[in-house]
Design goal:
Blueprint lengths: L2 E5 L3 H13 L3 E5 L2 H10 L4 E5 L7 H10 L5 E6 L4 H9 L4 E4 L4 H32 L10 H13 L6 E4 L6 H10 L8 E5 L5 H9 E2 L11 E2 L1 H4 L4 E5 L6 H13 L1 E2 L8 E2 L3 E6 L3 H6 L5 H7 L2 E4 L10 H16 L5 E2 L1 H9 L5 H15 L6 E2 L28 H19 L4 H7 L4 H10 L3
Parallel strand pairs: 1-2, 1-3, 3-4, 4-5, 6-13, 6-14, 7-10, 10-13, 15-16
Antiparallel strand pairs: 8-9, 11-12
Length: about 450
């Protein structure tokens, strides 16, 4: 149901349109002169205003201008029995939604036009709602913390967000580096432009290059059409290079050139495209050490680390565990409609005692697991609902190493240990390779190497 205002000096037409649209389920008001029309426009918000162009004392164009001056958001549909091209152009230039000619099919045409106007309004409202939710989801306020370490991180976010400087975010896997990157973007002047993220460790070098820079038709086998790269797609906004430490030296050269010259050239192309992007990079590796070992270009390192933010691991900020756990509980319980509102003391004690090698991501997954396995009657999360790996089993004394007179096959023993760790990490990660790599604190590229080596 929509709120409609019909303005026409023919009262009989107003009555006919009012009856037709009331039957369609809309709220309808009418005005047969410009004074009454102005009062109604000033006094109420309408979804659609249907107005005759030729009115006594004022034209429909003038009423359209009046509605826009009062910031009335209604879609303005102008109708006329005497159409002219110049009038139609003026109407559309001033923001009229449609221009409809009075014929014997006027009611049917208006129903179509009004229906489309309402659909577009609903889409805009949904867009606005989703945008607001996104802003809330990635605002600084959504980074739940009580610790001094995270407060320093948030202070850095507030300070660097307005500047165009490149930011390098350091921290272990799962600490929330991407959330910090999004917070910087949403607090920056680029917030209305795209935020695009790519995991550099998830692509082979050739595929990563085509994803970043795009390609032209015929650049390689399978390139059947032109494709814009994500650097160009992020124009005006922010590009997040996640796990930048996984890029090859060759790729670092190409990225450095693109950042310095602010231009990209797609694969197979012969012209450059100007781009304006803010770069944010994240890594869980020691880039300075990689520079010293020749695994990361020094010039590229200084280019991406203009500002560096270190996100502390969860074990160094245990005061954040409880508020984070309650935050995740509220979110997951609401998502599946369970009446869970808190943790029993034993459950919270186990959460706060855990070392959380997987950091915030592991805590999030643990709470999601507990919510999922809780019964519909539960009002609190019980300790038994938590994953078995939340509290590490008591350490058992290691058996002393012994080497007999016959010696030991060192390579086989080490290989056996590596294979067992890989297999166990895969089990805990539910078969997800990237998650298993994080549990083992190795890169996904290294994990794939070992998995292939041991035929896992």
């Amino acid at each position: 149901m929509a709120r409609l205002l019909i303005i026409d000096d023919e009262e009989s037409l107003c009555q006919v349109l009012e009856i037709a649209f009331r039957r369609a389920g809309h709220q309808v008001e009418t005005a047969s002169n410009t004074e009454a029309a102005r009062r109604k426009i000033d006094g109420r918000i309408y979804d659609v205003i249907v107005c005759d162009i030729r009115m006594p004392e004022a034209t429909g164009i003038e009423l359209l201008e009046h509605a826009r001056s009062t910031r009335n958001p209604a879609a303005f549909v102008l109708i006329t029995a005497v159409p002219t091209v110049s009038t139609a152009v003026d109407a559309l230039n001033l923001g009229a939604y449609r221009y409809v000619v009075k014929t014997d099919r006027l009611i049917d045409e208006l129903k179509v036009v009004i229906g489309r106007a309402l659909e577009e309004q609903a889409l805009r409202e949904e867009n606005t709602r989703l945008r607001s939710e996104l802003l809330r989801a990635f605002s600084q306020a959504n980074i739940v913390s009580r610790s001094h370490g995270m407060e320093r991180v948030l202070e850095m976010v507030r300070n660097v967000a307005p500047a165009p400087s490149t930011v390098l975010i350091l921290g272990e896997s799962g600490v929330g580096k991407e959330l910090v990157a999004r917070a910087i973007h949403e607090a920056s002047p680029r917030r209305e432009k795209p935020f695009i993220s790519i995991n550099c460790g998830a692509f082979p070098e050739t595929l990563l290059e085509s994803e970043l820079f795009g390609y032209c038709k015929g650049a390689f086998t399978g390139a059947d059409s032109n494709k814009k790269g994500i650097i160009e797609a992020a124009h005006g906004g922010t590009l997040l290079l996640d796990e930048i430490g996984e890029t090859s030296l060759n790729m670092q050269v190409k990225l450095l050139r693109a950042l310095q010259e602010r231009r990209v050239r797609p694969l197979g192309g012969n012209t450059d495209q100007a781009v304006d992007v803010r770069l944010i990079a994240t890594t869980n590796r020691d880039l300075r050490k990689m520079v010293d070992e020749g695994e990361f270009r020094e010039d590229f390192y200084y280019r991406v680390s203009v500002v560096t933010i270190q996100v502390p691991p969860l074990r160094e900020r245990p005061e954040d565990i409880e508020p984070l756990a309650r935050h995740f509980l509220q979110r997951f319980a609401a998502a599946i409609g369970k009446p869970l509102s808190d943790f029993e003391p034993e459950a919270m004690a186990r959460l706060t005692a855990c070392a959380w090698p997987g950091n915030v991501r592991q805590l999030e997954h643990a709470v999601e697991h507990a919510v999922a396995v809780s019964t519909p009657e539960d009002r609190i999360i019980r300790a038994g609902s938590l994953p078995v790996d939340v509290v590490a089993p008591p350490a058992t004394p290691e058996a002393p190493l012994t080497i007999g007179a016959e010696g030991v096959d060192f390579e086989r023993e080490i290989a056996s240990i590596e294979k067992n760790y890989l297999a166990e990490a895969l089990r805990v990660a539910g078969g997800v390779g990237t998650r298993a790599a994080e549990l083992l604190h190795i890169t996904y590229r290294s994990f794939r190497h070992y998995a292939k080596k041991y035929d896992l």
